[in-house]
Structure prediction request, 331 residues.
Amino acid sequence: MACETPLTQMNANLLSLRDLSVHFAHRGGQTTVVDRVSLDLAAGQVLGIVGESGSGKSQLLFSLMGLLAGNGRASGRALFEGVDLLSLPPKALDRLRGASLSMIFQDPMTSLNPYTRIGDQLAEGLIHHQAVPRAQALAEAVRMLDRVRIPDAARAARRYPHEFSGGMRQRVMIAMALLVKPKLLLADEPTTALDVTIQAQVLDLMSEIASETGTAILFVTHDLGVVARICDRVAVLYGGRIMEDGPAETMLTSPAHPYARGLLATTPRMDDALTPRLPTIAGTPRSGGAMLPSCPFAPRCGARLPACDTMPPLRPFGPERRLACHLQGET
Prediction:
């Protein structure tokens, strides 16, 4: 199926996704968790992917890294500097991972080698991919640990992962990903385990590095406060499909899709402390399944129309925005 909405020219972007889908085979058939996603990401830009758990955010990132489970399959195109990541042989993809392409995972304990000192794990990327001498690589690792606010970074570099708290391990993972100055950084809820003060400092660091080096960041989160602090653009994902995308400021002040409005309404506000209870989105989130002809949000939508039995195309809606909703002309 062709892309529903023309985006900017592919060669003008560091990353261009075209009809990217992710499927998982099982005894009962096939489950689709990402359905024909098309997005563009320019160098130095931070694109937030938001949505409830099970919306396909993490699997979208895993497909780009070639890290889907054995029964997983990605289709469509993911052009990184004009090269399709989905069709690269494993060895060619290995050369990109940890060098031009880096990822911060949700669970640092399963991502760090428990038998290797933290400093050595950070330095490995510089030594292997950039031929940096070991002593220099270790010194740069210590500096990056200090930048993500690891106390006594030189001493910490000689410790093992089990000697760190969960939040400190997450900062180590962020330091590891940023140290190699990748062209594209995939961040899967990287600040969830951090307290708000450290979270703010780490987000500012990521923004600073993106600005300094031109690193593009694909940032998965469910926290709209994080989106407001770091993202240039936002794409709202539900049931594996993009419901709406556009500039972050516009999306956070005047979302058009009923689901995007629901997400914003459920976010606590500092100026609304007297509200006894936050509103919720009725119903149960959809997390994959067979491809449906209808809008995946229709069963939960309070503005549902008969037309919602068919999925609307993702169409332009105002400056630099796209919207997939039959209410488009009335919103």
DSSP finds ten helices and twelve strands in the chain. The CA atoms of residues 50 and 236 lie 5 Å apart. The longest strand covers residues 29-41.
